Amino acid sequence: MMSLMVIPAKAGEGEWGFAVGLKAISGDIDTSGSEQERATANTNAYEVIKTTKSASVDFGSVFAEFSGRDGFFGFTTGVEAIPGSATLGSGSRTDTDLSGGSEGGTSKTYTASADVENLITFYVEPTLYLAEGFGLYAKAGVTTLDLKTLESISSGTDSAVYPDATMVGGVLGAGIRYQHSSGFLVKLEHTDTNFRPYTAEATTGNKNIIKAEIDYTATSLALGWQF
């Protein structure tokens, strides 16, 4: 995929070219998670707590791609990057610790969330051209991101700290593109991204187990220039 992006052999013939641009994205992120709490470390006695979070987000990205066309058929391969970071799935709950034998117990509020950053997508777009400059395309690709867990659950019998991870997701979508003879490029597309679930055992406390899933649906408008 990356090698196709740097092949210059046919650039300049009108059917092949390298493009760069910016993309405005509006999407919905759905996150769900569960924590299996052990009574003590290395036991199988679980209390399962589940939650879901949804949010609408707007942000931008940059992309670079290499496109080729032969008659009605075309093919594009590229890479897209979203700068910065974002916080997902922030939530909290209050537990009462009765392990000390006190009548009222001790209450503790636990909070958890995650930061995502370094979100990069590699994609391909087979395209059917219907008229001069206009084409319909299908999109498939792979997205990676770095997940940094942020939790404040270091008190009581439910204490747990979870490791960071790199997550991988599959991208499917479709769109329409228009390229002017001058090189000006416009793309409108809709995509769905499903990440592999994040599953981890806590590195501290009772060795609780957490599982989280992220699904992302987006509509975007891209503006670029093809050379």
3D architecture notes:
The protein is an all-beta fold and 227 residues long. It has one helix and nine strands, in the order H-E-E-E-E-E-E-E-E-E. It has one helix spanning 2-5, and strands at residues 16-38, 46-70, 73-97, 106-131, 134-152, 165-179, 184-195, 198-201, 209-226. An eight-stranded antiparallel barrel has the order 1-2-3-4-5-6-7-9. A hairpin with a 4-residue loop joins strand 6 (165-179) and strand 7. The radius of gyration is 23 Å and the shape is elongated. It starts with a helix and ends with a strand. 26% of the residues are buried.
Strand content: over 45%
What gap, in angstroms, lies between the N and C termini?
A: 19 Å
Question: Any low-confidence stretches, pLDDT <50, length ≥5?
Answer: 1-14, 98-103
Number of strands: 9
Oligomer: single chain
Cα gyration radius (Å): 23 Å
Q: Which term fits the overall shape?
A: elongated
The pLDDT mean sits at 78
Structural class: mainly beta
Number of helices: 1
Largest sheet: 8 strands, antiparallel, barrel
Order of helices and strands: HEEEEEEEEE
* Residue share in helix: under 10%
From the structure above, extract its key features:
single chain, eight-stranded antiparallel beta barrel, elongated, disordered N terminus, mainly beta, 227 residues
